[in-house]
Each structure stands twice: as structure tokens, then as C-alpha cells.
Amino acid sequence: MRTTIKGKILADFIVEFTPGPSSQNNSLKGCTLNLDGASNGKGARVWIVLTTLDGSVIEQSYTIGFRATNNEPGYEAVIAGLRMVTTLGVTKLEVQCDSQLIVS
Question: Total domain count for the chain?
Fold first, then answer.
């Protein structure tokens, strides 16, 4: 009985918060992708923030699983960010790295 209720709640949540095709297409026509990466003696991290025209924000951060030099986390952030926008189908993109405009 409990798993049935949990499944219905999850299905209702997905239906309620999944944007329809028209709203998704409008919000993904222009996005800003902010990227950053850093490394130190403890490891390397990558931060990705995608902001849509309607103000929605998608954030990701993760630790790189290999020893990285100073610039490598930034490169990894660019690769991961471009994979994200490709998967989401973003049609117009502005890319900022360390708060500097890279591509518009």
C-alpha cells in the first residue's frame, strides 16, 4: 500500500512540475551559462550555473576525479556546461567564465 501511494505522489509531482513544450521552448531561447573551476592541493571542483530568460536557474557542481592543473577545471566546466545546454536544447547562449563574457 505504501509504495503505491509514494508512486502516485511522485507521478503527480512530475506532471505538475514538468514544463510543457511551449514554455520550455520559450525559456530556452536565450540563456546565460556561468562557469567556474578551481583546483588546490585537496582536489579540483567545477561550478556550472544556467540561467534562463524567465529567471529559472539550474546549478551543478562536482569534484573532478583526477589530479588537475590550474586551468583544467575551467576547461572541464566549459565542456560540462556545453553538454548541459546541448542536452536541454538551448538555442541561444551567452557564456561567462569567472564573470567575464566569453561568447554571446
Answer: 1
pTM beyond 0.90: the answer is no
Per the model's pLDDT, the better-predicted residue between 52 and 23 turns out to be 52
Q: Among residues 51, 38, 33, which one has the least CA distance to residue 104?
A: 33
Give a yes or no: residue 83 inside a domain.
yes
Could you list the residue range(s) of the whole structural domain that residue 44 is in?
Answer: 21-103
Q: What is the pLDDT of residues 60-100, one digit of tens each?
A: 888 887 777 777 888 888 888 888 888 888 888 888 876 55
DSSP string, 45-99: EEEEEEEETTS-EEEEEEEESS---SSHHHHHHHHHHHHHHHHHT-SSEEEEETT
Residue 50 belongs to a domain: yes
The CATH number of whichever domain residue 71 belongs to comes to 3.30.420.10
